[in-house]
Amino acid sequence: MTALFALATSLLWGLADFGGGLLTRRTPALTVVVVSQSIAVVVLGAVVMATGGWSEAGPQLWFAVAAGLVGPVAMLAFYKALALGPMGVVSPLGSIGVAVPVGVGLVLGERPGVLQFVGILVAVVGVCLAGGPQFRGAPVQRQAIALTLLAAFGFGAVMALISEASTTLTGLFLALFVQRVTNVAAGGLALYVSARRGAPALAADGFPWRSLPALAFVGLADVAANGTYSIAAQHGPVTVAAVLASLYPVVTAVAARGLLRERLRAVQAAGAGLALVGTVLLASG
Length: 285
Known about the structure:
By secondary structure, this protein is mainly alpha-helical. Helices cover about 75% and strands about 0% of the residues. Helix 2 (about 30-50) packs antiparallel against helix 3 (about 60-85) and helix 2 packs across helix 9. The model is unreliable at about 135-140 (pLDDT under 50).
């Protein structure tokens, strides 16, 4: 079950990153974050009311609040990096954040077996290579790398925090709702301050009404990914769940290749293959 839900997480995050990266090329990244997360709040609020999730309120929700504060910073940095592109390079570097939940798991006493340990190493190396990172070139490229590393740490922290925010399914719905409300509050405040300082809050053609379906998909896919990761981490080793969930850059790179015709370099194809081998080792271990 851990492998299944963790791989579902990587699929959802990969598609959400691809969609978010496309949207930020037309709409300011902070606006994409706030609008997509606001849609997720509405849907999650309805789910919490329908399932009686309010009964699961408790001190553990502070983990969700913390995740909600860290999340917008990570998402904004990542979307800005994706806008600088290319996606096939930026997205895999974001997987470095897997070190945070893996480190937490090790501190808490988890000890993967030999086969799983090898799978972790192979998968992490594969995901990093899948981007074929290019560290030379113009300052824009260095800025994208810096933003991606900031986002990576934030994503890793969110993964570690959200896995501690609930122990039941209804509690998970409530935790995700609290996380998203905090996301919108923090992101909305940042958007207000940014607009007051003169930064554009919208594209030149106004509010992106035509992009609402895409914004909804990005917000809901991100929420669903957080949920499936939490379930994966609760039903198995966090070290395994975190690494499998961090295969999402491969999904983003493949989507960019198929839809945007971004060419995969040899090192990227080799990295994707290594990530797949690592996944098999982790699942079989």
